[in-house]
Amino acid sequence: MLKTEVRQRKTQSVGETKPLNQKNASKNASSAADAQKPSPSMFKHVMYYGITFFAGFLFAFGLALSNMTNPNKVLRFLAVADWLNWDPSLGFVMGGGLIFTFIAFQILVRALKKPLLADKFGMPTNNKLAWNLVIGPIIFGIGWGIGGICPGPGIVNLVSTNWKMYVWFFGVCIGLYLETFLARFNVIYHKIKSM
Q: Where are the stretches annotated Disordered (predicted)?
């Protein structure tokens, strides 16, 4: 009799724990399924980098297709004095891109309250003409005229085997670091001056 009572109690205790184990298993399964689902922020990041990659691809493909990665083509456009060898195609490329982008921006900014993958449009708020916006383009134009290459086509040309592009890119990096150093020095100078 005692053995049968012990066996009945064991079977009852085992039977009572089964529903609890099933509940825990279902909770663990649901939590694992939720963990495997991509979160909205993760999906947003993937879309952002995917669109960024596609934009860079279109940019490089358009430059290569229009032969804007060739420095000689740029130099032939800048040599306006030589009418016989002047090549106006660069103007059509820049003008076409500017017109299309200007119209697209006017439509999208008015149609959308905010970008699809950002909190707001990065529109400029400073309407003042600073001295660096005058001197900077002049320096850029001098470098562009000397080398016949601007940053976009230059970066695209880094995939080529032309070692001159790597020398050019090294100069670009030095110029960027120099401007950053001068900007920091200017901030420190004004802080010391105001003390």
A: 1-38
Structure tokens at 117: 């993958």
Structure tokens at 12: 């009852």
Radius of gyration of the chain (CA): 32
Q: Annotate 16-75 with DSSP letters as a single string.
A: HHHHHHHHHHHHHHHHHHHHHSPPHHHHHHHHHHHHHHHHHHHHHHHHHHTTTT-HHHHH
Q: Give pLDDT tens digits for 23-52.
A: 555 555 555 555 555 566 788 888 888 999
Note the maximum CA span of the chain.
Answer: 118
Burial class (CB in 10 A: 0-12, 13-18, 19+), 5: exposed
Length of the chain: 195
